[in-house]
Amino acid sequence: MSSNPPAIRVSHLSKQYKLGGREEPYHTLRDAIVNSLKAPLNVFHKTPPVEGFWALKDISFEVESGEVVGINIVGSQGNPGY
Predict the structure, then answer these.
(1) 3-class secondary-structure state, position 82
(2) Strands (E), 1-82
(3) Are the CB atoms for 50 and 22 separated by under 8 Å?
(4) For residues 2 and 65, is the Cβ–Cβ distance under 8 A?
(5) CB within 8 Å of 48: residues ≥ 6 apart
(6) 9, 32, 69, 71: least surrounded by Cβ within 10 Å?
(7) What are the 10-residue block averages of pLDDT along the chain, 82 residues in total?
(8) pTM exceeds 0.70, yes or no
(9) 68 and 22 in contact (C-beta within 8 Å)?
(10) Does the CA dihedral 70-64-5-59 come out positive or negative?
(11) Beta-carbon-side half-sphere exposure of residue 32 (alpha carbons within 13 Å)
(12) Which among 50, 46, 55 is positioned nearest to 18, based on CA atoms?
C-alpha cells in the first residue's frame, strides 16, 4: 500500500432496485390536485407489494494510483450485458 491517498475511495455504497408495484409517472400540478381529491377513494384500491432487490449493499473499496479496475456487468438472464 502506498503512502499517497487512494485515487478512488468508495465507502458504504449500496444500490437497491424496487421490483413489482407500479411505476409512478411524472405528475403535473393539475394531476396532484386531482389525485388529492380522489385520495379518499384510494382506500378501496390495493396496490401490489413492492419488493426490494439489493444489487450492492455496503460495499467499500479503494483504488490506488496505477491500479486497474474491471467491472463485470451481467444482464437480466445472467448473460454478459455488453
Answers:
(1) coil
(2) 8-19, 51-63
(3) no
(4) yes
(5) 20, 21, 22
(6) 71
(7) 84 87 73 79 64 88 92 68 54
(8) no
(9) no
(10) positive
(11) 4
(12) 50
